[in-house]
Write a structure and sequence with these properties.
- The structure is a single chain.
- This protein has 12 helices and 5 strands.
- It folds into 2 domains: 123 residues, no CATH class; 132 residues, no CATH class.
- The chain has a 5-stranded antiparallel beta sheet.
- Strand 1 and strand 2 form a beta hairpin.
- The protein starts with 7 loop residues before the first strand and ends with a helix.
- Helix 3 runs antiparallel to helix 4, helix 6 packs antiparallel against helix 7 and helix 10 runs antiparallel to helix 11.
- The chain has 281 residues and is of the alpha+beta class.
Length: 281
């Protein structure tokens, strides 16, 4: 279920757990404040997290995670926390950990919809500390969420790939009716169709299919099979536009310039389009 601020909420054994996409690194961050409610009442959730942060094992784990994933992590501050951890007087909040070490594994948000969010690696570790059983249910529901997202994205991609293929028939009909004299041989006709297909490829991708093959020897398929959702939408539009420009008798070199300009404008618009973003969610 999507919330207004683009967070996703999964239900884990009757407990709603928020998941927030990190706009900087693109990773999922799970609300450990929600997870902490499994161990205590709502008002004590922050204390549960602070108690977890007091443990030496927790500090060691967080420090190692940051060293592996964060080039800007402050090892000097980390060593100070590690030496103090486990003592009776040691207290550590998520905010202090983040501000002192430059950590990126935790995110602390204030306000009504705030809380402490952790990278999924860390969130699963915290869940294990709270309840090993709850951790297993959390992993199961999180994986179910990711499987659903991947399935929807695959479906949307295939629908738009099919749309581009349908529009390509409009494109080829325009070529047949306007660019191919009856006197041309089948091989010459094929060259004409291929030439116009490359016009679209260059306009959108900035390269021909042959150039793409040279640069990408391992992937199967062709240049359009690896296109993004936005690119597929633009390709469908370019096919219709090029068909109309062909019927108007505009030379290929002029059409290429127009199509390239249109492709850039449309891609920029679609990149910031909320409707397209919803297709990916």
């Amino acid at each position: 279920m999507k919330n207004k601020d683009s967070r996703t909420e999964i239900n884990v054994n009757g407990t709603g757990i928020s998941i927030m996409p990190n706009q900087v690194n693109g990773n999922d961050y799970i609300c450990i404040t929600d997870i902490a409610k499994q161990k205590s009442v709502d008002s004590d959730a922050n204390d549960v997290i602070k108690n977890w942060l007091r443990n030496r094992d927790t500090i060691e784990f967080l420090g190692l995670w940051e060293k592996l994933n964060n080039p800007n992590f402050n090892p000097v501050e980390f060593d100070g926390f590690r030496k103090e951890s486990g003592t009776n007087a040691f207290v550590l909040s998520p905010q202090r950990w983040i501000e002192s070490t430059g950590a990126i594994g935790l995110i602390s948000k204030a306000g009504r919809y705030g809380g402490t969010f952790a990278h999924k690696d860390i969130a699963f570790e915290f869940a294990s500390w709270v309840s090993p059983e709850f951790k297993l249910y959390l992993i199961k529901e999180y994986q179910r969420l990711k499987d659903d997202e991947n399935s929807r994205l695959s479906l949307d991609w295939n629908v738009n790939r099919t749309l581009a293929k349908i529009n390509y028939r409009i494109h080829t009909d325009a070529i047949k009716d306007n660019l191919i004299p009856e006197s041309l041989s089948k091989s010459q006709q094929g060259m004409t169709y291929a030439s116009e297909a490359e016009v679209l490829n260059v306009a959108l991708f900035g390269k021909t299919s042959k150039d793409w093959k040279i640069e990408n020897s391992k992937p199967k398929g062709n240049i359009r099979d690896t296109a993004t959702l936005e690119q597929l939408l633009v390709m469908a539009n370019l096919e219709s536009l090029n068909a109309e420009l062909i019927r108007q008798g505009i030379p290929q070199n002029q059409r290429l310039l127009q199509l390239h300009k249109i492709a850039r404008i449309q891609l920029q618009s679609l990149t910031n389009n909320t409707s397209v973003k919803k297709l990916k969610q």
